[in-house]
User: Fold this.
Amino acid sequence: MKALVHLSIDIFPIIMLLIIWINNHRKMEKSKASGYFERLTLITVLSMTVDIAGNLAAEISTASPDPVLWAFFVARLLLSAGLAATWLCYVAYRLCDDYQKRRTEYIVWFAHGVFAASMIGVLLAPWEDLAHYGNGNETVQMIVFYRIISVENMTLLLISIAIAVLAYRRREIREKRIECFHMMWFGLIPLFSVLLENYFREWKMTGAAIAIAILYIYVNAQDRQITTDSLTGLNNRREFDLYLRRLIEQGVSGWGMLMIDMDDFKQINDNLGHVTGDEALWETADILRRRLGKEKTFLARYGGDEFVVVDMWENESRIQEVIQEIEDEIDIFNECGKKEYRLSVSIGHALWNENPGSVEKLIELADGRMYEIKQAKKKERRKVERSGLFTN
Amino acid sequence: MSAAVYLQINIIPFLALLIIRLNARKSLSYTWRNRALRFSMVLMMGVIGTGTAAWFLNGRGGQLVRILLWLINITYFGCIEFAAFLWYLYVYDIVKNEVGQRGKKVLRPAIPFVVFLAVLYVTPLYPLIFDLDANNCYVRGPVYPLYVGVGVLYLAASEVLIVKTCRQELSREKKMKYYGLGSFAGFAFLGGIHQVLFPGVEMLWPLLSSALLIVYINVQQEQVTRDGLTGLNNRRRFDQYIRELAEQDLTQDSWRFVILDVDRFKAINDTYGHVTGDRTLKLLAEQMKRVFGNRRSFLARYGGDEFVIILNGMSEKETLEDIEQLRKAVAGMHWADGKKWNITISAGMAAYGENGITNIPDIIVLADERMYREKHVHHDEE
Assistant:
C-alpha cells in the first residue's frame, strides 16, 4: 500500500520530468549549466522511481537483513545527496560571471567532494545495519545516516541560496535580477521539503518540489528562446509587436520610441568578417542594455542591424536627452578603442502623442527620421573627405 | 488515505498548471486556439482545487458546510464537462486548421454539455448527478453515469478526429504533434482504470494534467522553432533539421534543396520602409505554403529575405514546375489597394548526390550559387 501511495504522489512529477527531458535532450547547444540541468532532471526521476520501487520491495521482502533493501536504501540516500549537489553545481554555473570562473569551480569541487564523502560513508557502514526500507522498521544507524544526509543536503541548498542572493545584489539589469530571485526561491522550496520530511513522515515532497523548479526553469528557458533574439539577447521582433499591441490595447498614450540603426554595418561585416560583425551588433546591444536596461525600458532588435527602444517619454526634450545619452555611451566605447572598428548609430524618434493612430505610421515616422539623419551624416562625411582633412 | 497524501497528490499538478498558465501568457500568441488551451488549464486547476476542497469538507456537519459542498460539487462537475467540451473544440480547430470556433458551428457539439449542465443545475431541487446524505457525505445520484458518458463522448470524438487526421498526415513532425494530442485520451483511460482498480485514490486529474502539460510543451516547442514574421520554420529549426537529416540515409529517396531570394529586397526596404518590406516577406511565405504545403516539404526562412525549401520524393521536372508556379503566383499578386506588385524572386535548386556531393551544407552552397547566378541575370535585365 505504501508503494501505491508513493506512486500516486510521484507519478505526475515523473511523467512531467520525462517529457521535459525528452524535449530538452534533442537540443544541441550544450553549456555546463544545461549539462547539469539535464543531469538534475534524470536524478530527480531516478530518486522518485527508486523510492517507489524500494517501498514495493519492502512490502514483498521476507528476508531480514535483505541485501535488496540495502541496495534500495543506499541508492535512495545517494540519489538525494546527488540531487542537492547537482542543484548546487547548476546554480553555480548558471549564475556565474566571467571573472568568477575559479570560484565556481571551487564550489563544484566542493559539491562533488561532499557527495563522494557521503558515498564512502554509506558504503563503508556495515550493510546489515542499513538493510531495511520504509517507515517504522528502521535501525538507529539508518536514522542517523538519514539525518546526516538531510543536514548535508540542506547545507548544499543553503549555499545555493547564498550564491543566488550574492548574485542578486551584484546584478544591475532587471531581467538578471529576476533570474537570481527565482533561483533563490527554488533553493528554498526543496530546503523546506527536506525539513518537512524529517519531521513528518507522511510528507515526501522533495523530489516533487525540485520537479516543479525544473518545470519552471524549462518553460522559462523556452520562453526566452521565443521572445529574445539569440545573438544580442534583447527582445525579438515578435515581442516588440506584442508589446506595442499591449500598449495600444491598454490605451497608454504618453510613450515614444527610438529606431536605432548602425552606420556602416555592411562595411564591418564585409571587411572584418561575420564574426566581427556579430560582435559589433552584440556590443551595440550591450551599450543599450547598460544604459537603459536598469529600468523598465523595452529594448528589442528590430531586424538585421536595427534596434528599437520604447519607453514612457512624454515630450521631445526627454527623448532628445536619451538619444544624447546613447550617443555619449557610444563615444566612450569608441574612445576606449579596444576594437578594430568604430561604432556609430543613427537614431530616429517618434512620440505617440505627435502621431496617434496606427503603430505602423509611428514606426514609419521614426524610420524616416532615422533615414534622414543617416543621409545627413553621409553628406557630412563626404564633405569632410572631399576637403581632404580626413584621409584614410 | 490521509489528508497529507491527498494534498501531496494534488498540490504538485496544481502548481505545475499554475506555472504553465502564467508562462503561457507570455509564450503563446493571442489566437482563439491558444486562449482555449489557456482556459483549459484554468478549468483543470478549478477541478483539482474544488476536488480537494470537497474532499476536506466531506462528512463535516453544519448547514454552512452543506451549502458550500453543494456549490463546490456543482463547480467541480461543471468544470470537468466544460474542459471536455473545450478540448473537443480545441482538437477540432487544430484538425480542421481553422481560426476559432464561433457562432452556429459550436451549437451542435455543445448539446451534450448543455444537457448535462441543465441536469446538474436541477440538482438542488431534485438530486440527479450527486447528493449529500444526512451527514453531509457525498453520494452518487441516479443519473451519475450521464456525467461519465458526456466526458467520455467528447474525449472519444476528439480521439477519432485525431486518429483520422494523423493517418492522412505525411510529415513526421506533424504526426508527432498528433501523438501528443492523442495521448490525452490515453491518460484519461489510464486514470479511469486506476480509479476502478484502486477506488479512493484519485489519479485521473494528475494524469490529465500531465497530458495538458505535454500539449503545452509541444505548442511551446512549435513556437521556438517558428519564424515570428512568416510562420515558416526558423533558422534554429532549419539547423536542427539538417542535423537530423545528416543522420539518416538519404540515398533511398530523391532529396532536393531549393533556395529562394527576393530580388532587390534592400531597395524595397529603403524605398518603401520596413512595414512594406515585412509585408512582402509575409505574402511570399503565404504563396510558398500554398504551392509547396501539400508536398512532402520542409519550408524555412533562412535569413533576412532568403528561404529554403527541402523536398523529398519529387523529380527535377516536378520541382522546376512548382518553382515556376510559385514565380507566377508571386508575379500575379497585387497590393490590397490594387496597385501592381512588381516583385520577382530568384531560385536555385540542387539535388542530394548531385556532382557526388553528399554533405548537406555543401549542397545548400551549390543551390545558393545557382540562385545568385539567376539573380545576376535578373539584375542585368533591369
Summary: The domain at 237-387 of chain A is CATH 3.30.70.270 (Alpha-Beta Plaits). Strands of chain A lie at 256-262, 298-303, 306-311, 345-351. The longest helix of chain A spans residues 140-170. The longest strand of chain A covers residues 256-262.
